[in-house]
Structure formats: C-alpha cells, structure tokens
Amino acid sequence: MQETALSAPVKAWAAACAILGVSLTANTLLTCLLALLAFCQLFFERRWRLCLIFGAFYLVLALLLYLIRFHGLHMVVFSEFYVLMFYNLMPVFLTAWNLITTPPGQLSAALSKVHTPTPVILGLLVVFRFFPTIKTELKGIRQSMKNRRLTGPVQVLRHPAVTCEYVLVPLLLRCLQTADQLSVSAIARGAQAPGIRGSYYARKMHAADFLWLGIWTIGTILFFIIGGIK
C-alpha cells in the first residue's frame, strides 16, 4: 500500500515537539505518550516497516525497564542507564528519522519557502541525507565483499584489522565521491544563483497536515499537564 506522506513542516514540528517534551518533562517514563503519538503518525503515513522495526525495539526496551524496576535485573554488557536513555529518546528517534528520510527536494522547498539562507539549506540537506547514504554505501560494500568471499567467519576472526580496512577504505572513497557529486549537482541546479528560487517539489499544506499540526500541539500541551515540567 502506498505511503501517505505528510509535508516537511509537519514532520519538523513533530520533531520539535518531541525534543521539547523529552527535554523538559519531569517524568521520563511518561515519554511513552509522545512515542505513542509518533507511532500513530507513522501509522497514518503507512510507514509499516519503520513502525515494525522501532516498535519491536521499543517493546524490548520497555520489557527491560520492567525487569530492572520490578525484578532487580542487572545487566552486565549494557548499562541500565542506556536502556532508560533510549526509552526516553524514542519519540525523538521516531520523529527525527521520519524527517531525515523525507525526500531532499521537499525539504529544500519547505526551507526556501521560509527564506532560509542557501548555505543553511545545503548544510541541512547534507546532514539529513548522510545516514541513509552511508547505509546504502555499506550495503554495497558488504555485497562486494561477499562476492569476493571476504566476509567469512574464518576470514574475520583471523584477520580482523584487514577486514576492517576492506570496509573503511571503500567507504571513505565513496564519501569523497559523493561529496564531489553533491557539489556538482548543487551548482548545476543553480544553488548559487541569486533571486527567488522555485522547486518542482513545492507542496501545499493539506487538511491532514493541519490536522497533525494541531494533534502534536495539543498532545504536547497535554503531555506537560500530565507529566509536569522540570
């Protein structure tokens, strides 16, 4: 089923509300309310895979917190502090990842509409697209190493430093090539041209966008009323 994406300003507002709520709340356990709101937004946008992955991770964190609080679970490898931290920051992870994975054209069009300086737009686009790009490059490097039989368990155990080199060197080269391609693409698209710039990806706000702006605003206010402010 096709995704029903909200506009970039709505996603940015959701991320801002999540960051504000997590930063100022007096009860960190109640951040589950903001996480539930973020999951509802992803559900509305039909981002099933993202809901499944983050949902499973969130359930594991909740189970660990329950065992730590009521059954005295002591973790050796992973500290209890990090479990609470990831649980607390889950609303930020959800909304931020939803914003980061927005198509760059929609992000640049939304930022241009509010007269954001061009260097700021280009910098934010590079930051937002860094992790998805690195994920794609790592996937390609992994497949290339697999084709050359360099990822076998014996190879990794016998030569861990060499295996790490096989990953880092191509990754660094690809990062440099991507930076050059991004610079050429930005210049070719008139990023340095003065005056008003248009965009093929300009998108008007629809009823669903205004609805979710109101939901996040009211939801954040209610969250502070229930959980309190530091």
TrEMBL record:
InterPro entries: ABC/ECF_trnsptr_transmembrane. The chain crosses the membrane at residues 12-44, 50-69, 81-100, 210-229. The keyword Membrane applies. It is a multi-pass membrane protein. It is found in: Membrane. It comes from the Bacteria. The keyword Transmembrane applies. Keywords: Membrane, Transmembrane, Transmembrane helix. This is Energy-coupling factor transporter transmembrane protein EcfT. It comes from Brotonthovivens ammoniilytica.
